[in-house]
C-alpha cells in the first residue's frame, strides 16, 4: 500500500525555533515531523551543515519512509537475540524477555532501530537541508524519489 502524498513544510518563527509541518497537497496541516535526536539535543535546523541540519535530514527521511524506516533485522527495537536453536539473530521481543538468556541479547548494528544511516541522512543534508532558507516545502514523493537513487536508500 502506498502512503498518501504529503508535503513537508519547514518554517522558522525565530532563531532556534524551527518546525516541520506535515500538510496535505491542499495545504491543510495534519501533523508535524518529530525531532529524532541523534546529533542535536536542542532540535532540528536547516540552512547550514551542522548537527541540527543532520537531525532534520534524519527525521525527515524517517518520516517519509514511515513503517519502512524500521530496521529489517531488529524490527525497530535496536536489539537482536541470538537464537541457539537456529544459529540466527532474531528481533528482540520485549514480551519474551524472560525467555532470553541476557548474554544472548545485543545491540543491532542499525541506527537506533532505523535503517536510515549516517551516509544516507548526511547526503540528504548536503543535497537539500543545508540549502534551505527560512521557509521551504518538499513532498514525500520527492524525498522517496531521491532515496531511490541512493545506495542503500530503499
Question: What are the defining features of this structure?
Answer:
three-stranded antiparallel sheet, alpha+beta, 7 strands, 3 helices, 22% helix, 154 residues, elongated
Alpha carbon gap, first and last residue:
15 Å
Helix content: 10-25%
- Radius of gyration computed on alpha carbons: 18 Å
The number of E-state strands comes to 7
Shape, principal axes of CA atoms: elongated
- Runs in which pLDDT lies below 50 for 5 or more consecutive residues are none
Proportion of strand residues: 15-25%
* Continuous helix count: 3
Strand order of the largest sheet: 3-2-1-7
Order of helices and strands: EEEHEEEHEH
What summary fits the major beta sheet? 4 strands, antiparallel
Structural class: alpha+beta
- Which whole number gives the mean pLDDT? 91
Model description:
- This protein has helices spanning 51-65, 118-127, 140-148; strands at 7-14, 17-23, 29-32, 79-83, 88-91, 105-107, 135-139.
- The chain is elongated.
- The strands form 2 sheets. Strands 3-2-1-7 form a 4-stranded antiparallel beta sheet.
- The chain is of the alpha+beta class and 154 residues long.
- 22% of the residues lie in helices and 23% in strands.
- It has 3 helices and 7 strands; from the N terminus they run E-E-E-H-E-E-E-H-E-H.
Outline the fold blueprint.
Blueprint: E1 7-14, E2 17-23, E3 29-32, H1 51-65, E4 79-83, E5 88-91, E6 105-107, H2 118-127, E7 135-139, H3 140-148
Helix pairs in contact: 1-2, 1-3
